[in-house]
Amino acid sequence: MLIRSSRIKPTKLKSGEVHRGPICVKAGERPIEIRSDAEEPATIDAGDGPGIIISDRGEVRLRNLRIVGSGRQHNQACGVRIEVSAKRQYRNILIDGLDISGFGEHGILIHSTAESGGFKNIRVTNVVSHHNGRSGITIGTDAYPATPHEDIYVGGCAAYCNPGIPGQKTHTGSGIAIDGFRRGTIEYCEAYENGALCDATESGGPVGIWAYNCDQALLQFNKSHHNHSNNQADGGGFDLDGGTTNSVMRYNVSWGNDGYGFQLWDFFWGEFRNNRVHHNISLMDCLRWRNFGAFVVFGRVINAEFYRNIADLSADSPAVEIERREGAGLRFSENVYLATGNSQPFSITDSPGVGLEAIGEVFRRDAGALDPAIPDVLNATDFRDLYRYARRGSGLSSAEPSRALAGRNKSSSST
Predict the structure, then answer these.
(1) Which of 309, 354, 400, 401 is the most interior residue, by most CB within 10 Å?
(2) Taking the domains of the chain in order of start, what are their residue ranges?
(3) Non-local CB neighbours of 303 within 8 Å, separated by 6+ positions
């Protein structure tokens, strides 16, 4: 189906019916909307090809659709690919209520191939992207360092069972990844069981939820668990990676990942400064790669801080791993580490950087497990209550935290 231009009237697909893909939308200026005509989603059957392709266009709305490929081992395309190659900025890409599966590449890819071309106001909400090859949801650019996109919001989405593609040079198999932007938020999302087939030979591995090459990223109130890697790299829960500035990870829960819970990683290209990691919880991460810590710092990291986080450590994994750090200014303050086995507070290697501080840290052995209800907590007040319980060392294995959290509303906080 080829849509050359769109009127204001949306393109409605018959609810509950199967429509043959792909839908291709060429460059144009008029707004376009593709959606089901009733509550039950229409299905776009892409077979071995792409589901929806949109090129060099803004004012795009995709709503309430099910998009299926023939399976990641047969299909070699994306479920939704929205791309800009022109040297201009398009506005308003809105995707809501899609279920995307069975594609060999990305479930959703929103991408710029031109350094000065991108999108402003990208919103991806209530999307489920699963059983795809390369990733669940990716928003990015070919250019680095560059931020051609502005104002990204990813909320209420799930990315799972996107295992990656074996035999690739660079990482595949992330759940949700965004890069190349100024001002971007990922919140109330969940990523799990991603990355198992990634054996990349010339890069790191996949991550559940992460951002890089960006300014003012905010990752909050998300869950990332049981993510994997097969190349002894990454496989972690959350990451702010190379070229990230003025960004925050807060009120997230990470558990059962092959690698770390939370990472700040600079790959020595561009700036990496003024990033904060606070009020997060890591539960038994580093299940496969025990050399990682619950928290990891690498490279030229400048003016960063980890504070008031909780880590329930896997046996023998360190609380914090710092490697090849060359930056100035790194503070750990008032974090709580619950240790088992031979776990140690810090593992530091080849790190000549200056200004490392540890203030008011709590490292406790044989403290008991954190309450199993903790992964269900997505409220700022709840996180603070759990932090207080963990810090004072009481009630960690009792029902007391669960009783304290009972009946709370799951709402965000501005602090």
Answers:
(1) 309
(2) 133-405
(3) 273, 274, 275, 327, 328, 329
Q: Do you know the residue count of the chain?
A: 415
- Residue with token string 């060392």: 393
Residue 232's SS3 state is coil
* Three-state DSSP class for residue 57: coil
- Residue 132 main-chain phi, psi, to 5 deg: -105, 175
pLDDT digits (tens, 9 = 90+) for 316-332: 899 999 999 998 999 99
Q: Which two tokens stand for residue 330?
A: 């790194």
The answer to whether residue 305 scores a pLDDT higher than 60 is yes
Range of 255-259, 370-374, 379-383 with top mean pLDDT: 255-259
Q: Does residue 413 register a pLDDT over 50?
A: no
If one counts every other C-beta atom within 10 angstroms of the C-beta of residue 49, the result is 16
| DSSP-derived secondary structure for 245-286 | ES-EEES-EEES-SS-SEEEE--SSS--EEEEEES-EEES--
CATH 1.10.357 applies to domain 133-405: no
Chain centroid to CA 323: how far? 23
Element (H, E) at 61: strand 60-69
Rounded CA-CA distance 360/337 in Å is 12
Tokens linked to 225: 């668990």
Q: Which two tokens stand for residue 411?
A: 């709402």
Identity of residue 159: A
Residues whose CB falls within 8 Å of the CB of residue 169, separated by 6 or more in sequence, listed in order: 200, 201, 202, 203
The whole-number average pLDDT for the span 364-375 is 68
Cis geometry, peptide bond prior to residue 166 (ω within 30 degrees of 0): no
pLDDT digit string (tens) for 347-369?
999 999 999 999 999 998 866 65
Strands 320-323 and 295-298, bridge-based pairing: parallel
Q: Which two tokens stand for residue 112?
A: 């710029």
- Interior CA angle at 186 toward 184 and 187, to 5°? 135
Contact predicate 251/221, CB 8 Å: yes
